[in-house]
Amino acid sequence: MINFKIFLKGLFSIKRFDSPGIALGASFIAIGALLKNIGFTIEESIFSSFLIYALPGSLVLAESTIIGASLFNIFLAVWLVNARLYPMTVSLMPLLNSKNQPRWKYYLSCHFVAVSSWLILKSNYKKINKKERIDFWIGIGTATWLIAIFSTLIGFISADYLNKDMMIGLAIVNPIYFMCAMIGVMKSKSISVAIILGVILGPTFYFVSPEWCILFGGTIAGTVAFLVGEKYDN
Amino acid sequence: MTIEIVLAIFVTSIATYSSRFFGMLTSEKIDESSKIYRWFNCLAYSTLAALISRVLIFPNGVLIETSYFMRALVVLISVVIFFISKKNLVYPTVFSAIILAIINSY
Fold first, then answer.
1. What is the DSSP string of A26-75?
2. What does each of the 106 residues of chain B score in pLDDT, given as a tens digit?
């Protein structure tokens, strides 16, 4: 079923000093505290991280609950903010595909696609035999998913001890970590252009449509980057 | 658990999982050396970058209570720390939290 040795290798890849575990944990502590402050129970908070496991989606859920948005509006807002998971999954799964592995592993483990796990896999997959990469990925995903769930619990429990300044400090950790990680992976022309243009066009399109800005900005930036890469990358 | 919150959690998780699921379906026939794979790879990085910059410039949640100047200052200091520390990811991340919490408390 699962190669346990490879699974554990993926699971423990989160232990590296500079792994996204810290950023992930800090931001889900903030989410746990936020959910408690807006009236979620401990079960609802844990349940939300268990099922959603995507930070921007959880933030939209929290804000939608505060303003009492309809279920349709919640769906649309979450879908738009988490649509980035679509190209992320498409760019991840071909690295893991093997005809020797059962398909259920892929459909179940695509729940683990998030920025943190995606970045860990992207920087480590070449070390693993392609036939066993899916087990490695399940290990990474399990580790990051459990961090998100337990950090939500910690945040919920410690909400009364976290003042506003501490919450603000926790909230900046995630974007700063991933911004630096993005700078770190700018090694080819196509990826560099994708990141730089994405950074510029995302907020630019916010003035056109706050809901669609990530999709519009990301799609244009990614397409231009692809064309640049096809022409100038080896 | 209240039914409204449980339904909202379910709707949020379906909206989130659908992108992952359709990504999985789309990837079934895509080879990692193909042009379409390279295009999706660029899209993944660009949408991520767009999301991160939107979160920093037009944030949700508690970050709204900080000014543009504060956030820009923290980003600038973090990038400098990132390069000084030979692209270590932990130092800028930890310092960003401390710096923003301190600046905001004054």
1. HHHHHHHHHHHHTT--HHHHHHHHHHT--HHHHHHHHHHHHHT--HHHHH
2. 688 999 999 999 999 999 999 999 999 989 989 999 999 999 999 999 999 999 999 998 889 999 999 999 999 999 999 999 988 888 999 999 999 988 888 7
Task: List chain B residues with CB under 8 Å of A180.
Answer: 78-79, 82, 87, 89, 92-93
Chain A residues close to B27, C-beta within 8 Å: 89-90, 92-94, 97
Measured distance CA(A5)–CA(B21) in Å, rounded: 27
Residues of A in contact with B12 (CB under 8 A): 48, 51-52, 57-58, 60-61, 74-75, 78
Nearest-angstrom CA–CA distance, A209 and A170: 28
Give the global pTM. 0.91
B69 touches chain A (CB under 8 A): no
CB-CB contact of A57 with A83 (8 Å): no
A120's tokens: 């860990």
Task: State the DSSP string of A112-127.
Answer: G-SHHHHHHHHHHGGG
